[in-house]
Amino acid sequence: MANKSIIIATGIFSPDIGGPASYARTIASRLATSRKVTVVTYSSVWNSLADSKLPFRVVRIWAKWPKGIKHGIYFIRMLFEARKGKVVFALNAVSAGIPARFAARAFKRKFIVKIVGDSAWERAISNNKTSLLLNDFQKTKRSGWARILHALQCSVCKGAYTIIVPSEYLSKIVEGWGISKEKIRVVYNGSDFEASPLSKEEAKKKLGISGNVLFTWGRLVPWKGFRMLVKIMPKLAEVNQFFKLVIVGSGPDKSILEAMIKNMRLERKVILAGRKNLKEVAEYLAAADIAILNSGYEGFSHQIIEAMIAGVPLITTNAGGNKEIIHQGQNGIMVKYNDEFNLIEVIRALWNNPEMQEHFIEEGKKTAAYFSVEKMFDETIALLISNL
Question: Which CATH architecture has domain 2-190+373-386?
């Protein structure tokens, strides 16, 4: 069995919350029906009683150790596990990808990595070291940590047998790092998101929200465009005085958004709801009249699929992989990132056209069915097993 086993390296795993944690658990469970699987993860807990009920092993590295120590321990455990496996699959390029890549190399194991973004750009923009969006950042000369992270993620990709990306857009980004196109495989993300059974009025009552809800959600970071949505709320009130902007998520931009809301006296018009789990997000979507994603970057947007599954008409941007999901005017509308005038006009047009809303809802559900979680896992597992 050892020569048929798969080692999954991840930066996060249950009970910690996040998309990568759910992804790791699901793919490991599915692989474990026919293969021996071990998951190596950083963890906020020493151990979990739930691990004993899983059909695969979980090796946990305490995430609260100092950085150098925890990464060193992670690498040592990866070396030990890679020795017993045949394929090493890393779910990110840096925290899991670097130790996984070198552990796989040490024992001449096939190394596969999933790339869902540019770690160097995300670090640079989060630390206010750049204001450029991803496409422009690729053309600039990097310095400091951005340069180091870029070199590391490129090294990981160059050492990989196969690189999995969730969109053609990200395939081009990785190819731009000097990586051979033949190594890259596009496997579109899927979603197992479940719509809430609540009606719109039931959801609004449960959440304590009145009026017509403009809903947006995600990590509160600069490139998600929440600041612009808050900025245009006074003008949107002229379109419909009952509009309320509801923002779900947490992150470094929280204090900036709170200050904007206070300074603009929008406490009655904008709700910062904080971080919510998927069930709670489903309830907010059930209460929503229009979903808006004003993002400057998306590798592949889970939120777009969630809105479509929930049956909420969607306005988003033409950034990144969005153009591979949205067919303009058919299942949603795309505008340029932070395009103040067109955001307002598109919201106005969609709000005043119930027939368009219904068309987007109908076509969106068809689109969501194509990007199914079953399809994503089937294609990924086929890739992994083909390398055993």
Answer: 3-Layer(aba) Sandwich (3.40)
